[in-house]
Amino acid sequence: MNRLSVDFLGINFKNPIVAASGTFSFGKEFAEFYDINMLGGISFKGLTLNKKEGNEGIRVWECESGMMNSIGLENPGVEEFVEKYTDYTQNIDTVKIVNMGGNNLQEYIKGAELLNKVDFDILELNISCPNVKSGGMLFGVCEESAYEVTKAVKNITRHKLMVKLTPNVTDIASIAKACEEAGADALSLVNTFQAMAIDVLHKKPIFDNIYAGLSGACIKPIALRMVHQTAKAVKIPVMGMGGIYTGTDVLEFLMAGASCVQVGTANFINPLALKNIIKELEAYCEKENINIKDIINII
Amino acid sequence: MNRLSVDFLGINFKNPIVAASGTFSFGKEFAEFYDINMLGGISFKGLTLNKKEGNEGIRVWECESGMMNSIGLENPGVEEFVEKYTDYTQNIDTVKIVNMGGNNLQEYIKGAELLNKVDFDILELNISCPNVKSGGMLFGVCEESAYEVTKAVKNITRHKLMVKLTPNVTDIASIAKACEEAGADALSLVNTFQAMAIDVLHKKPIFDNIYAGLSGACIKPIALRMVHQTAKAVKIPVMGMGGIYTGTDVLEFLMAGASCVQVGTANFINPLALKNIIKELEAYCEKENINIKDIINII
Amino acid sequence: MAVIIQNTQIAKNIYKMRVCCGDDAKAGQFYMLRAWANNPTFSRPISICDRDGDEIIFVYEVKGKGTKIFSSLKSGDNIELLGPRGNGHELSAKKCVLIGGGVGIAPLVYLAKQLKSHGAEITAYLGYTNEAFLTEDISKYADKVIENIGGYITDYIDELDADSVYICGPEIMMKKAYELYKYTNAKVYASMERRMACGIGGCLGCNIKTKNGNKKVCSDGPVFKAEDVFYE
Amino acid sequence: MAVIIQNTQIAKNIYKMRVCCGDDAKAGQFYMLRAWANNPTFSRPISICDRDGDEIIFVYEVKGKGTKIFSSLKSGDNIELLGPRGNGHELSAKKCVLIGGGVGIAPLVYLAKQLKSHGAEITAYLGYTNEAFLTEDISKYADKVIENIGGYITDYIDELDADSVYICGPEIMMKKAYELYKYTNAKVYASMERRMACGIGGCLGCNIKTKNGNKKVCSDGPVFKAEDVFYE
Ligand SMILES: Cc1cc2nc3c(=O)[nH]c(=O)nc-3n(C[C@H](O)[C@H](O)[C@H](O)COP(=O)(O)OP(=O)(O)OC[C@H]3O[C@@H](n4cnc5c(N)ncnc54)[C@H](O)[C@@H]3O)c2cc1C
Ligand SMILES: Cc1cc2nc3c(=O)[nH]c(=O)nc-3n(C[C@H](O)[C@H](O)[C@H](O)COP(=O)(O)OP(=O)(O)OC[C@H]3O[C@@H](n4cnc5c(N)ncnc54)[C@H](O)[C@@H]3O)c2cc1C
Ligand SMILES: Cc1cc2nc3c(=O)[nH]c(=O)nc-3n(C[C@H](O)[C@H](O)[C@H](O)COP(=O)(O)O)c2cc1C
Ligand SMILES: Cc1cc2nc3c(=O)[nH]c(=O)nc-3n(C[C@H](O)[C@H](O)[C@H](O)COP(=O)(O)O)c2cc1C
Ligand code: FES
Ligand code: FES
Question: CA torsion, points D202, D205, D206, D211, in degrees to nearest 10?
Fold first, then answer.
């Protein structure tokens, strides 16, 4: 019996551990280290309608118990992804999540439409992208724009829709509810926190874009709070993330209300991180003589 | 010559290092370890109009590169503070900052009025308090209530008014501007981030209040970004804080636009932290042959 | 910064560390120990188990991150000591009962030694979960030592005629032990534990509710009159 | 997990570490090294300086947190090695010029050894800031070694008739060296550096712009044709 299996949107996950978008590429690099099909799922590197070269300058920077990134969504574009879909996903026999962002509503809609051509399990909508049309404000920071983009994509996609929330907001629960109302089938959170680092030696920001996204253990306490608030606010399932490094961290997120979790930065600390976490959870369930789903949302 | 002296609201600070409210009590405990009058200033333990017993249960919890606290503003109340003011502040010969919060507008106003009876340098208004009248929403999370409380206190106080912002907001710059418009003489930020920890063993939240305030190195990259945004948004001076442990951290905040900084959690890691930071900054200015104020807001 | 002279396991998960440190310290006081830079954030409070010339002896149980790191230290390594902190014990020269549970037995060694030198008559009740430790050390000073492994030490307490009772161990055990003496004439002291951030009275993190209002375990305690803390 | 055999200082801020590790690795490849749990977050990329039986030799400069920790390790300590990673060098059997600056000289040792065993004729230009190191090691394999301390090594390059040129050092020096050979028939290779998070191609953090689009230093490199990276 598999004590770790969970149901999420009617899909059976072998376990609640999903590789986080942007930290696992399309899986190939990690497949060199272990059988990645042991994972609950993989959220692929974030796509945008058009190919993106990503940002110039320093792209990753370390900080206390975490890191900042300014990759700038470098990706091959939805079109190429759809064309070479079998190349990208061959040998992947676990839940496939396609993560997609956009710079305006049209890009989201077109991207989602194109993605209708290929089969995967969940479309994860990254709404932490600047909406060029409204002065670069992120779609995910206000209820209206979060609602609008969710609704628009929901109307066009034939996939299950999971909306990925940004944590850079006053009231995560209200944004979550807006997405739920707009038709999101599930929510994932958190994306990275907007952060900054300064090169004091050269008296300039580390990143060409000045600000960058913070992830890793340092954000865990805030991410956990937001997952808890969100899980209490909505009825749809929640995939939690933010600074998960260990099995114990996973337990916290599940207890707080997440049905699955994603793990990002930990993959950089150790390419075997996800495998180790799964082993830890197996041992925990064995010892406690429970199924992992028993602890979901008990707090 | 003192290379570290800075001007803040026309007050001369010996150096830009201020002990953060709630982490330094009223100074006495630290005076046992070094001459606390070497500090730029001290922000005293946060007061409320009425004496508060503080929270039950676990009050401090450690996390990766930081801590969470749920002290619950335990304090003697403004009245007692005013009565015993000389006891509290005798032997303190550095900039005195009185930090005050409240549970509704009336408490803020009455507290500020009472504080008019005593002399100190700056009144620091903690607006990260739940406004009981509007369902417990923090004063500091929306422009209107931040404006309102700032304005009300500004009208009554005879002290220089520094408003302390909460980081749990979508757009710190707009809150900052609201406070500036309402008459704040200066801003300080950030207060703690709302966060959570779970006792997986006992399957319950660590804190009786479920959520608690996160501080320490883990929040530094986000705090720095917010200080940068705020300094760019307003004309009044900014006192920056959040995860400062070292002299280099101070340089980052000053370059980002803070004219002074507060240091909190670091005092718990080492009671001599502030003294060490000042020494580090002295050595830096000596080596670079500059005055510390030359690097303020250069990024 | 102090130098570790010795750091060895003395029972399951229990270690004894000798540190070179010339401080004058009282029984019942503790130090904040640190053997890392910024992570873990907090230093760890450990009681004085005993003193030996210029050395302070700590006995600690490996519980989590911090004590795990302590257990990996070798003689010659450095450790930061902040202290001694806390009020420490009032010493009585008369009939004393010492009650310890688990690693709470550690601070009773130096207490017994001090009481003995004040001419007290000492009975010690020591309760262990798995394995005894420090029994010999306490036997050097106590007139009578009752030890139990696996049960409740409070079940074995038969000496109720005491002037002073000193209890250190899990809170539930301390409360139970106090109940036994509540209506006697003994002065009963309990060594309280709370999670500590600063250890010096600056953060209010180690708050304990007492009959006389909020107190700080790190600076008002850790030793309290049992009636003041177990009043509810 | 690998065991450190030796870790000693060989010049100012420069250390040599011998690690027991049976991997097969090519010149120009690197390992991600880690001697801590989660903090610092990233492992540190260090090139293979040389191989000796079952041992891999790293030579590294102490720059910040990570290399500071490396320098404190003692023989017998463990270190985590992730690798070998990266493409490594193509070996030529003909006239080779090696140009190294600072700690960029380290990977040239194993390269020289390999080239020699392929029968190449080697000229090496080694530029140091303060103090020479590894010169003897390279002299074992190179036919001619020109070293300079304090100046610009590119000012000393007089052998422009080469089939292959391998450059490793500060980016500005590599670019300058490349310019010297730009219009010759030599194939010129540069070992590029970028901050790395994963080191295995998973994060796109180590991006480098090339004539042929974005590449990853960790997996498409670190060795690139100089014309592809210094094309602007
Ligand atoms: C005044 C005083 C004196 C003391 N004297 C001694 C002494 O002499 N000897 C001694 O051995 N101890 C003593 N202690 C206790 C000692 O300070 C603690 O055991 C020590 O701080 C534990 O640190 P740690 O890093 O090993 O464990 P931590 O990692 O801090 O964990 C400690 C405990 O908290 C629990 N815990 C930690 N994280 C979680 C989580 N996420 N969820 C649920 N539970 C969690 C663990 O179960 C564990 O039991 C004293 C304490 C005080 C206050
Ligand atoms: C493929 C590859 C191979 C390499 N091979 C070798 C090798 O063989 N030997 C070797 O010595 N090195 C090698 N390096 C370089 C080596 O990886 C780095 O020197 C090392 O990672 C530095 O780590 P650190 O923790 O010591 O320094 P870090 O703390 O990461 O700092 C590194 C540099 O960044 C700067 N820095 C850090 N923080 C800041 C800040 N806040 N503001 C401004 N500047 C900052 C510092 O000035 C310092 O020079 C290689 C790199 C790559 C990519
Ligand atoms: C290098 C890097 C790249 C990322 N790229 C994406 C992305 O393309 N799309 C996305 O939705 N999130 C992206 N993220 C965010 C992660 O998926 C995740 O939300 C975040 O890192 C928090 O989880 P963690 O703390 O476990 O890393 C990226 C994160 C990192 C560190
Ligand atoms: C134990 C503790 C108590 C605090 N009490 C107060 C307070 O009474 N009033 C206040 O405005 N901020 C309070 N703070 C917030 C700090 O002043 C500071 O804003 C925050 O800790 C971030 O700085 P740091 O990372 O340097 O600690 C408290 C923080 C801690 C850790
Ligand atoms: S631990 Fe900070 S007041 Fe006691
Ligand atoms: S370091 Fe992650 S892709 Fe190269």
Answer: 90
Marked catalytic residue, from A63, A129, A179, A260? A129
The answer to whether the CB of D162 falls within 8 A of the CB of D142 is: no
- Residues in A closer than 8 angstroms to C39, CB to CB, are 64-65
Residue B131, classed as helix, strand or coil, is strand
Q: Return the exposure string of A36-47: e unless at least 16 CB atoms fall within 10 Å of the residue's CB, then b.
A: beebbbbbbbbb
What are the strands, taking DSSP E only, across B153-255? 160-164, 186-189, 193-196, 198-199, 204-205, 211-215, 238-240
Partner D contacted by A62 (CB < 8 A): yes
pLDDT tens per residue, range D196-211: 999 999 999 999 999 9
Residue B228 φ/ψ, nearest 5 degrees: -60, -50
pLDDT for D55 equals: 95
Q: Give residue-wise pLDDT tens across range B125-144.
A: 999 988 777 777 899 999 99
pTM of the model: 0.97
Amino acid at A273: A
pLDDT single digits (tens) B172-217: 999 999 999 999 999 999 999 999 999 999 999 999 999 999 999 9
Cβ-Cβ contacts under 8 Å for A44 (sequence gap 6 or more): A21, A24, A25, A26, A27, A88, A96, A97, A98, A99
Q: How wide is the angle at C-alpha A74 spanned by C-alphas A133 and D194, nearest 5°?
A: 130
The answer to whether the CB of C192 is under 6 A from ligand 5 is no
The four Cα atoms D66, D68, D69, D73 give a dihedral, to 10 degrees, of 140
D78: phi then psi, degrees, rounded to nearest 5:
-95, 155
Residue C109 one-letter amino acid: V
For D190, the enclosing helix (H) or strand (E) is strand D187-191
Instruction: Show the tokens assigned to D155.
Output: 């000012």
In whole angstroms, give the CA distance from residue B138 to residue B170.
13
Peptide bond preceding B190 in cis form (omega within 30 of 0): yes
- What is the model's pLDDT at position C93? 76
The domains of chain D, with CATH numbers, are: 2-85 (2.40.30.10), 95-191 (3.40.50.80)
Distance CA A236, CA A176 (A): 10
Mean pLDDT of D36-59: 96
Parse chain B into domains and list their residue ranges: 6-55+71-193+216-295
CA of B125 to the centre of ligand 4 (A): 13
Q: How far is the CA of A22 from the centre of ligand 3 (A)?
A: 5
CB A243 within 8 A of CB A219: yes
Task: Tell which of B24, B26, B29, B52 to mutate to test the C interface (max C CBs under 10 Å).
Answer: B29
Res C192: pLDDT: 98
Q: Which two tokens stand for residue C33?
A: 């120990």
Distance between CA B97 and CA B118 in Å, rounded? 12
Q: What is the 3-state secondary structure (H, E, C) of chain C?
A: CEEEEEEEEEECCEEEEEEECCCCCCCCCEEEEECCCCCCCCCEEEECCEEECCEEEEEEECCCHHHHHHHCCCCCCEEEEEEEECCCCCCCCCEEEEEEEHHHHHHHHHHHHHHHHCCCEEEEEEEECCCCCCHHHHHCCCCEEEEEECCCHHHHCCCCCCCEEEEECCHHHHHHHHHHHCCCCCEEEEECCCCCCCCCCCCCCCEEEECCEEEECCCCCCEEEHHHHCCC
SS (H, E, C) A106-161: HHHHHHHHHHCCCCCCEEEEECCCEEHHHCCEEHHHCHHHHHHHHHHHHHHCCCEE
CATH architecture of the domain with residue range A6-55+71-193+216-295: Alpha-Beta Barrel (3.20)
Ligand 3 contact, A264 CB (< 6 A): yes
